Each structure stands twice: as C-alpha cells, then as structure tokens.
C-alpha cells in the first residue's frame, strides 16, 4: 500500500508542479494554476497517509519514487523517451527507497 500512496503522491506533485511550468514556461492560461494548487494539496495529503515512524524517513523514501515517476511523466506526457542513464539512475533510486522502506528496524 505504501508504494501505491507514493506513486499517487508523485503523480499529484508532478501534475501540480507541471501546471506552474505550463503557465510560466509554456505561456498557458493562469487557470492552469487552479487544478495545480489542488493537485499539490492532494500530494501533501497523500504523503501524510504513508505509514512511517518519522516524516523525514517517509520523505526520503518518497524521493526515489518521485524520480522514477518524473521519468514516466517525461515519457508519457512530454513525449521524451528516457535514455539508459535516466533508467539506471531511477533504478538506483528505487533500490535506495526500498532499502529505506523495507529495512528491519528495532522497536
């Protein structure tokens, strides 16, 4: 369930940030900012749902998922296919996030 929450949070964050990118850099209507703000609020809510004993650990693990989701966005929304270096980096980040999430911790 944690990975699903992270993926949903990443998509919400990327969509929210992209709305600002589209408004500022692509000269889209300022109306793009309204769903963007809602998406960023959803991101914060979804990330807060993650089961973790410390916010910093939840955020650190989320970072790896965010990187992989950003490359999916790059490909699916922006039409730019990630190269092998992008994929290698994302794989390393997912591995790091998994270590943080799945490491056995004492009580």
Shape descriptor: flat
Number of helical stretches of at least 4 residues: 4
Unreliable parts: none
Largest sheet: none
Order of helices and strands: HHHH
Rg over CA atoms: 15 Å
Helix content: over 70%
Terminal CA distance reads 21 Å
Mean pLDDT across all residues, rounded?
A: 93
| Class per helix and strand makeup | mainly alpha
The counted number of beta strands is 0
Strand content: under 5%
Explain what you see.
With 107 residues, the protein is mostly helical. Helices cover 76% and strands 0% of the residues. The protein is built from 4 helices and no strands. The chain is flat, with a radius of gyration of 15 Å. The mean pLDDT is 93.
Describe the protein's topology:
Blueprint: H1 2-25, H2 33-48, H3 55-76, H4 84-102
Helix pairs in contact: 1-2, 1-3, 3-4
Keywords summarizing the entry:
single chain; 107 residues; mainly alpha; 4 helices; 76% helix
What's this model, at a glance?
The protein has 107 residues and is mostly helical.
């Amino acid at each position: 369930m944690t990975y699903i929450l992270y993926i949903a949070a990443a998509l919400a964050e990327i969509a929210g940030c992209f709305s600002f990118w589209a408004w500022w850099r692509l000269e889209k209507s300022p109306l793009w900012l309204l769903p963007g703000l809602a998406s960023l609020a959803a991101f914060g809510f979804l990330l807060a749902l993650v089961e973790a004993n410390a916010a910093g650990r939840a955020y650190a693990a989320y970072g790896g998922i965010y990187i992989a989701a950003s490359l999916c966005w790059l490909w699916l929304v922006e039409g730019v296919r990630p190269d092998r270096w992008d994929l290698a980096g994302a794989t390393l980040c997912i591995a790091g996030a998994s270590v943080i999430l799945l490491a056995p911790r004492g009580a």
